Amino acid sequence: MSLTQDELKTLVGQAALQYVTPGTIVGVGTGSTVDKFIDALAASGLAVAGAVSSSVRSTERMKALGIRVLEAGEVTSLPVYIDGADEIDHAGHMVKGGGAALTREKIVADLAERFVCIADESKLVPVLGAFPLPVEVIPMAAAQIARRFAALGAQATLRAGVVTDNGCQILDVRGLQITDPKAFEADVNQWPGVVTVGVFARNRASVCLLGTAAGVKTLVF
Ligand SMILES: O=C[C@H](O)[C@H](O)[C@H](O)COP(=O)(O)O
User: Fold this and answer.
1) What's the complex ipTM?
2) 175 a known binding residue?
3) Residue ranges, the chain, pLDDT below 50
4) 2 assigned ligand-binding residue
5) Amino acid 196: pLDDT
6) Cα(208)–Cα(210) distance, rounded to whole angstroms?
7) Ligand 1 binding site (Cβ under 6 Å of any ligand atom)
8) Which domain covers residue 173, as residue numbers?
């Protein structure tokens, strides 16, 4: 019997517990897959010292389940950061931000020694770009940034009605084939008004726990 996408998310959310050491502080991402991890962590009884959260959404969920949440500024490093992805390639580069949390996710990921990505198998791709790339932008720069993407042959549209946890906007960019994620991330990140581009190359995954019909597959990068 094949598992649903939701069941695959539950599976990898639970599998991520093996990367969490009692007494340590864990970095926690955002999204429907991470929700499964948060639920598994709360149910596991693993006595973590707390969590650094990447969004208001995850903070609220953790607090409701009795997990202590610390500010990013209260820690100097984290042993592990657990998060989902919208796409991941065979080298651990990711596209993230489908839930508009990309900036805080990148900040928390940058504090971590290891990024453990949890995803169902639909997220594994040969080349990043089929999923519309989220880019968080300062509102007054949105039109100019959209023109820059148009010059690359891509189409950027404003995510209607969305204001990020940082008070900014999200552009979703279609029509890209990101063959050199590291160079692309570095380039777009320095365009004026870009807060964060949703390519995670510098902060790529070290491990991916992929939910497949045959169970959890561990990819190490
Ligand atoms: O902003 C949201 C994040 O980058 C999520 O990690 C990403 O969108 C994956 O979310 P989900 O687990 O819901 O597919």
Assistant:
1) 0.97
2) no
3) none
4) no
5) 98
6) 6
7) 29-33, 83-86, 96-102, 105
8) 133-197
